[in-house]
Specification:
The protein has about 450 residues and is α/β, with parallel strands linked by helices. Helices cover about 50% and strands about 10% of the residues. The chain has a nine-stranded mixed beta sheet with strand order 3-2-4-5-1-6-7-8-9, with helices on both faces. Helix 3 packs across helix 4. The longest helix is centred in the first third of the chain and has 30 residues. The protein is elongated and about 90 Å long.
Length: about 450
């Protein structure tokens, strides 16, 4: 017998028992609504009855045999569901509503299996239609299964009364906690205070012109998150090798001159510090993928796989860093333009952040307008984002790096000055964050308090 000829999994007796329980006891209504939605019922008549109950409850009316009969009659479905006789049969299915949650879970689990069959069937059909694009097929299938798994852990309807209690607990916890950093800390004090850190489900864009230090800053943040905050970090580097990335982070942390280390000309007394930082980083939960020419589909598939592997270990992926958007290739059909392709990439990065509930820090380049001599200032702005306005639209936070000393190299007083411009923040203030820049260490650091001179060891790493 073919799969399409088989009767889908169902729990009709449990469906009847749930509806009967909801009709005989008011408390059973709320307990069932927490678990079920109309589409979870296999029988169409049961979906209509459940909808009628939801409609009555929304109007603060009693839910019983009489009111449901009238509501179904008003909607024009009474005869279709079997009339008042069938409703009476449902009430006679159970003698008590004590087991309504058990019956509801049976209905819900059967619905999940049916949805799993639908996903599997559609995946098979897509495989026959597009056999030349297996990576996209895997990504699409994984995405559907991931959403289904999330649904498995979610409730159905949530009453305002229940939600108000949850929000109250959240606020009380915030008051007791007193910690303004609710996301992954970056190590840049004022930036963390303004943003609350890198928040779950957020897409954060870090942009700058070439040679302004966007990769250096991203690696500073990734290092701080993994080494100091002990947050598992995934790094996708489409430009630099894993060894170069590792070496740069170690040199930044050890305050060792990157050029001297890369040429083997550094002072021997610095070796102990380098070895110490290599050991610290080696013990940190950091994962680097330096595969070149990755597609957005590759990134999504590998991120989900890493998140799943960490979850099996009782850990949680805390940050995804991507260097950089301009090197990511589209994962599906060939786009009409690069702008359209980047728009799709941006949308899928935001979707990845939401699905995994992980902040995604993606690097982007700014266009050449900042260097246009007709402009009164080379300070970057949102409109300077390269290739697609959708990046600005999809991002929750956009931060732009500006170093005035890069444009005025004859002024040594500007050499260490750097500004991280929070140009967009969906749920917070915008503004400037002053930092210090140490090019020899590829390191951004918090500036020293006024009138106090400190060594650059006060840096976040």
């Amino acid at each position: 017998m073919a799969i399409n000829d088989k009767l889908p999994p169902q729990a009709l007796d449990a469906e009847m028992a749930v509806l009967g329980s909801m009709m005989i006891e008011a408390e059973a209504l709320e307990r069932a609504f927490d678990i079920l939605k109309p589409e979870h019922f296999y029988k169409n008549a049961h979906q209509k009855i459940f909808n009628a109950m939801a409609s009555l409850m929304a109007k603060n009316q009693a839910v019983d045999l009489i009111t449901i009969t009238e509501e179904l009659k008003r909607q024009g479905f009474l005869a279709e569901i079997g009339g008042e006789r069938y409703l009476s049969e449902l009430m006679g299915k159970v003698s008590t509503a004590a087991h309504v949650e058990h019956y509801a879970k049976m209905v819900y689990e059967a619905a999940l299996v049916r949805e799993l069959i639908n996903i599997s069937t559609s995946t098979v059909e897509e495989c026959y239609k597009n056999p030349d694009d297996p990576t996209s097929l895997i990504d699409e299938a994984q995405g559907k299964l991931f959403k289904l798994n999330q649904q498995r852990e979610l409730k159905g309807f949530v009453s305002s009364k229940e939600l108000s209690g949850e929000v109250m607990q959240m606020i009380e916890k915030l008051i007791v906690d007193k910690n303004p950093i609710k996301g992954v800390p970056t190590g840049f004090t004022k930036f963390d205070l303004k943003t609350g850190g890198l928040r779950k489900s957020d897409l954060i864009i870090l942009a700058a012109r070439p040679s302004q230090g966007k990769t250096a800053m991203a690696l500073n943040i990734a290092h701080y998150a993994a080494v100091h905050a002990k947050v598992p970090v995934a790094i996708f580097s489409l430009e630099m090798s894993r060894h170069s990335i590792y070496q740069r982070m170690v040199c930044s942390a050890a305050m060792a001159d990157l050029h001297q280390v890369s040429t083997g000309m550094f002072k021997k007394e610095r070796w102990r510090e380098l070895a110490r930082e290599i050991q610290r980083l080696g013990e940190a939960p950091m994962f680097i993928d330096d595969t070149p020419a990755l597609t957005i589909t590759d990134i999504r598939v590998r991120s989900r796989r890493l998140a799943s592997e960490l979850k099996k270990q009782g850990k949680e992926l805390g940050l995804i860093m991507i260097d950089y958007i301009g090197l990511i290739r589209g994962g599906g059909k060939k786009a009409e333009s690069r702008q359209q392709e980047v728009s799709e990439i941006s949308r899928m990065l935001k979707e990845l952040a939401r699905n995994l509930e992980v902040p995604v820090l993606a690097l982007s380049q700014l266009n050449r307008k900042t260097e246009d001599k007709t402009r009164t200032s080379n300070r970057p702005q949102l409109s300077d984002l390269r290739e697609s306005g959708s990046i600005e639209q999809d991002a929750d936070v956009v931060a732009l790096i500006h170093r005035e000393g890069y444009y005025k190299r004859d002024d040594p007083s500007l050499e260490r000055d750097a500004t991280l411009i929070i140009a967009k923040q969906r749920n917070g203030p915008v503004g400037d964050v002053k930092l210090n820049w140490y090019s020899e260490y590829t390191l951004f650091a918090n500036p020293a308090p006024e009138n106090v001179e400190v060594a650059p060891e006060a840096a976040p790493v």
